[in-house]
Structure formats: structure tokens, C-alpha cells
From TrEMBL:
Residues covered by region (Disordered): 283-321
Record key words, sorted: Disulfide bond, Hydrolase, Protease, Serine protease
Name of the protein this chain belongs to: Peptidase S8/S53 domain-containing protein
Family: Belongs to the peptidase S8 family.
Keyword Glycoprotein: no
Any GO BP annotation: protein processing
Organism: Scophthalmus maximus (Turbot)
Length: 321
């Protein structure tokens, strides 16, 4: 469905999923893609049947091959294959480790596409690209050297809306929520990983309308859930951006005082990151498999990570599923 919002998809907005979007060979978002904060990364997709390059070739359901495998039906499996290579080189990685790897290694595919931002932690993000385009070689190389992330913490905050917000049919609402992230408690979060905002049972009321009109709703309260760790704090919004995370490591930003966190970064900064990432090539000889199992802190029950398509799949009947 075009003009949809993937944040309303239960698979995409699960913290355990790696939501994957699709881009064309030009680095532009595919026309069927759905933007939302839940998109974590993108991969390339093939052209439609009878179209030009690129070709994504896969085995067919019966015999032979299909050379045109488009849609998120191809993008999500490509991501799954990349993550399989990552887990092959380091099977000790948890679902959160994998997400950190994605965030720190994904590359900007098109710096000219409006909407790129750099968050307070120094990661480049976009509602269509997530953290960027997956780089299989770089992810495998970094996975071999990856240190386990700290145990996950959870902070929950119930927020009553005064006044309540009216949600009209086909419309949206905006809610500003201030949070201390459980500061001073044992579950204090200083390094944020996920944010979830949900309504509680009984906090959404239906507003009566004439029978020929769709009913509106009134949102009375929401629950804010923060997930993260107790790692070092990053610069708050409005502070000068000192460094960015790219290709698995942190890099000092030229002319750091010229950009403040929380504001749209200048195109020149995005282009500088793009050129740096474009020129980084990982060869097979650059990848070293760990000698043995890695030690990690105990963080409770871990859930498996699964790629989720952030958009609609291809509907061609000849495409494999």
C-alpha cells in the first residue's frame, strides 16, 4: 500500500525486529517503500519483470531461475543472508548486538535525498533509509571483533494528556513528552536504543458522529517505554556535534562547532560522510574469524532478530516467496 506508514506494522515496530526497506541501483528509495522511525536499514532490490538493471537472480519455486526479483520480497531476504554471514563469523552475537552492528556500519546510499539527520549519539538516520545501506563485508569484519553490548534496561512512564488529543479519521496527532529516563534509579538509561509509545486499554474513546461520517477518537493517555543501557551519556540536543559513528568506529567531525545536535545537518556534512563511507572497501583478507567464544555480560533472555520488510512485497505471481 502506497503512502502507508510502516510504524503501524506490528512486526516493524517490534524492538526485536530489523526492519528493512528497499532502494534502487541509484540509491533512491523504492516507490513502494514506507517511511517511519522503525526502518533500521535498506538493501538493494531488483527491477520489475521486463525492466532494466539491476538483476536480482534467485532460484524459482519449481526449476530454473528468476532474474527479476523485485520488492521487499527481495530486500528482506538479502538482509537475512547478510545477517546469516554475520552470525556465521560470530555466533555469540545477540539480537541487540546485531542491531548495534547495523547502526554502526550501514552507509549513506544517497546524500542528496532530503531527510538525513544526525542524532545526539552521532549516528546518521533517515525515515526511509534507517541508518543506511547494509554493507555485508563491513558487517562481517566488524562482527568478528564486536564486543557485547551492556545488559538492556527498561524505563516506563505513564503520561496523561491534558487536554486530550482528538484523532480525526485519516489524521494524526502530536504529543510532546519530557522524560528523565528513570534518572537516579537502578534502571536509569543514559544510552538510548529503542522508544515505544503506546495507548493503554481504556485510554482511547470513540467520539460519536453522524452515521454517514467516520468516527473520530479521543486519546486520553499514553505509555512511554524507553530501552537502553547505562553507557556514557552523549551530547544533549543543541550542543556542538563533535563526532559521528561510521563504518564501525567514531570519527571527529571537521568544523565541529558548525553543527549542533538536534538540528538538520548541512548537506556538506552528509556528503563528507558519504564520501568517506564510499571509499571504504572491505576485502576477504580483511576479515579475521574469532579464535574462540567471546565472553559477554548476562543480560537475561534474548530474543532472535528477524528482518521485517518495511513496505509491501512484490505481487508478481511468478516471484518466489
Amino acid at each position: 500500500m502506497q503512502h502507508d506508514h510502516c510504524g503501524a506494522d506490528g512486526y516493524v515496530n517490534s524492538i526485536h525486529s530489523v526492519a528493512i526497506g528497499a532502494v534502487t541501483q541509484t540509491g533512491k528509495p523504492a516507490y513502494f517503500g514506507e517511511p517511519c522511525p522503525g526502518v533500521m536499514a535498506v538493501t538493494l532490490t531488483g527491477a520489475g519483470v521486463g525492466g532494466a538493471l539491476p538483476l536480482v537472480t534467485v532460484t524459482a519455486v519449481a526449476d530454473g531461475c528468476v532474474t527479476h526479483f523485485p520488492g521487499t520480497s527481495s530486500a528482506a531476504p538479502i538482509a537475512a543472508g547478510i545477517l546469516a554471514l554475520v552470525l556465521e563469523v560470530n555466533p555469540e552475537l545477540t539480537w541487540r548486538d546485531v542491531q548495534h552492528l547495523v547502526a554502526s556500519t550501514a552507509k549513506i546510499p544517497d546524500p542528496e535525498e532530503p531527510g538525513w539527520n544526525i542524532n545526539a549519539a552521532g549516528y546518521h538516520v533517515h525515515h526511509r533509509y534507517g541508518f543506511g545501506l547494509l554493507d555485508a563485508g563491513l558487517m562481517v569484519q566488524q562482527a568478528a571483533l564486536f564486543n557485547a553490548v551492556a545488559p538492556q534496561r527498561r524505563c516506563t512512564q505513564d503520561v496523561t494528556l491534558d487536554p486530550s488529543r482528538i484523532l480525526s479519521p485519516g489524521g494524526g496527532i502530536s504529543v510532546d513528552i519530557q522524560s528523565e529516563a528513570c534518572r537516579g534509579r537502578t534502571n536509569e538509561i543514559s544510552s538510548l536504543e529503542h522508544v515505544q509509545v503506546t495507548d493503554r486499554r481504556g485510554t482511547v474513546r470513540s467520539c460519536a458522529r453522524p452515521s454517514e461520517e467516520e468516527a473520530a477518537g479521543a486519546l486520553l493517555a499514553v505509555t512511554l517505554v524507553l530501552y537502553g543501557t547505562s553507557g556514557p551519556r552523549r551530547a544533549a540536543h543543541g550542543r556542538p556535534l563533535q563526532s559521528i559513528v561510521s563504518m564501525g568506529s567514531r570519527h571527529l567531525v571537521p568544523h565541529a562547532g558548525a553543527h549542533q545536535t538536534g538540528r538538520r545537518p548541512p548537506l556538506g556534512l552528509i556528503q563528507w560522510i558519504y564520501r568517506m563511507e564510499r571509499d571504504r572497501k572491505v576485502r576477504a583478507a580483511d576479515i579475521t574469524k574469532p579464535a574462540g567464544p567471546q565472553l559477554r555480560p548476562t543480560s537475561g533472555q534474548e530474543s532472535p532478530t528477524r528482518p521485517a520488510a518495511a513496505g509491501r512485497p512484490s505481487r508478481d505471481k511468478d516471484q518466489p516467496r
